[in-house]
Write a structure and sequence with these properties.
This protein is of the alpha/beta class and 408 residues long. It folds into three domains: 60 residues; 149 residues, Rossmann fold, CATH 3.40.50; 188 residues, Alpha-Beta Complex (Spore Coat Polysaccharide Biosynthesis Protein SpsA, Chain A), CATH 3.90.550. Helices cover 33% and strands 23% of the residues. The chain contains 15 helices and 19 strands. The strands form four sheets. A seven-stranded mixed β-sheet has the order 15-14-11-16-18-17-19, with helices on both faces. Strands 7-6-5-8-9-10 form a six-stranded parallel β-sheet, sandwiched between helices. The two termini are 37 Å apart.
């Protein structure tokens, strides 16, 4: 129940021979069973799996889909009445006590607070739809500022085309990029000529149904760069044992537990040792014969191996052991075909970086011992920063001292 309130998915695992039961958190469990649970959550499907210790049945308990309404207006009353029987959990946010009353919203969760306060205390998840109906810039903009960096699957705002243009201008002045602002559906709802509060509510709910039922989830490949010579370390750092596993295995385990498909590990220097460290992994190895030419050659080799039906590729570094599958999935949730999604700490950008396919051509032209920083700078207005909340996007192990410090 706590996980559902927090928007987290859990999986109940039942061992079919012994009857043993486990409750798994796929966001943190990196065991083989935990990775299988993460796959079941991604597919939103309970299933039977076979592991070395026998067969298990995994039952997925997803966080409920929710509609978060800002503005306790007449449209919100109608939307709440329609959404609950459609299977959505509804909460209404409005600091104006005369509007947010139990008489007007019987049985609905009411938060009589400013949107930034309510959404900070109970953040939006990838199962959340934010619908802004207050028609008051102070309330609307406060809510949208919280939603744009989130993983919410839908963001909509009431208002005419002219009102929406003014809204976008205000948010752009606050520093939000065009790719972020493009997430806002305005005017909200399907264009069916709705006029009355009930008709507008139907249009909004219909758009959510269409979005959930008919849009294919993007397929994102993972490219783990593992072909370098580790010149600063003096030996191959990726096969060094860190907290019980080779460094490269920790990076690949996080990728394997995420929604990345496929996972491509680009090898070069001591490719046989990298392969041995990843024995049993679901990752595919892509050997870069030209690894001595520098980082860009491994980037090109990885991109060349990405299947044609992938919508984008995430670049991960093999020497960053604190990157979790949770952070990887947050970047995937924020994917936009016209954007570059990058993990960040504060205002400092790091790794991993998710590139939409439209940028592959430019990335394939990068040369020398460098990554894609110049390409990212050339498309600054299309970069979407995903805040990690910790130093993981910046923490790589490059020296003997850094390795010793991490082990301690």
């Amino acid at each position: 129940m706590a996980a559902r309130r927090e928007g987290r998915a859990l999986v109940r695992a039942l061992h079919l021979a012994s009857g043993e039961e486990r409750l798994l958190d796929p966001a943190s469990d990196t065991s083989p069973l935990g990775q299988a649970a993460a796959g079941a959550v991604r597919d939103d499907a309970s299933r039977r799996i076979a592991l070395e210790d026998g067969d298990w049945f995994l039952t997925v308990y997803h966080a409920p889909w929710e509609i978060v309404v800002v503005g306790a207006v007449h449209i919100a009353q109608a939307l709440a009445a329609f959404a609950v029987p459609a299977g959505y959990r509804v909460r209404v946010i409005d600091p104006r006590a005369p509007y947010a009353t139990e008489e007007r919203f019987p049985g609905i969760s009411l938060q009589r607070a400013w949107p930034d306060e309510a959404l900070s205390a109970q953040p939006l998840t990838q199962h959340s739809a934010l619908v802004v109906l207050a028609h008051d810039a102070k309330l609307d903009d406060s809510a949208l500022a919280q939603a744009l960096p989130s993983s919410a699957f839908y963001i909509g705002a009431l208002g005419s085309t002219r009102t929406h243009s003014r809204r976008l201008a205000r948010l752009a002045a606050q520093g939000y990029s065009q790719s972020q602002l493009a997430r806002i559906q305005g005017p909200v709802g399907l264009a069916i000529g709705a006029r009355s509060p009930s008709e507008i509510a139907i249009a909004i709910l219909a758009e959510l149904v269409r979005l959930r039922r008919s849009v294919r989830a993007p397929r994102i490949a993972g490219i783990v760069l593992a072909g370098g010579t580790s010149s600063r370390m003096g030996r191959n750092k990726l096969i060094e044992t860190v907290r019980g596993k080779p460094l490269i295995a920790r990076a690949v385990d996080a990728a394997a537990a995420s929604r990345l498909d496929p996972i491509l590990v680009v090898t070069g220097h001591q490719a046989d040792k990298i392969a041995a460290a990843l024995a049993g992994s679901r990752a595919a190895l892509v050997h870069n014969e030209r690894f001595a030419e520098g980082l860009s050659s491994s980037l090109r080799a990885g991109l060349a191996a990405v299947p044609e039906d992938c919508d984008g590729a995430m670049i991960l570094l093999g020497d960053m052991p604190d990157i979790t599958h949770g952070l990887i999935d947050r970047l995937i949730a924020a994917f936009d075909p016209g954007a570059i999604c990058v993990a960040a700490t504060g205002k400092r950008r790091g790794h991993p970086v998710l590139w939409a396919r439209r940028f592959f051509g430019e990335l394939m032209r990068v040369t020398g011992d460098k990554g894609a920083r110049d390409v990212m700078q050339a498309h600054g207005d299309q970069v979407l920063e995903i805040e990690a909340g910790n130093d993981a996007p910046l923490a790589d192990i490059d020296t003997v001292e850094a390795l010793a410090a991490y082990r301690n």
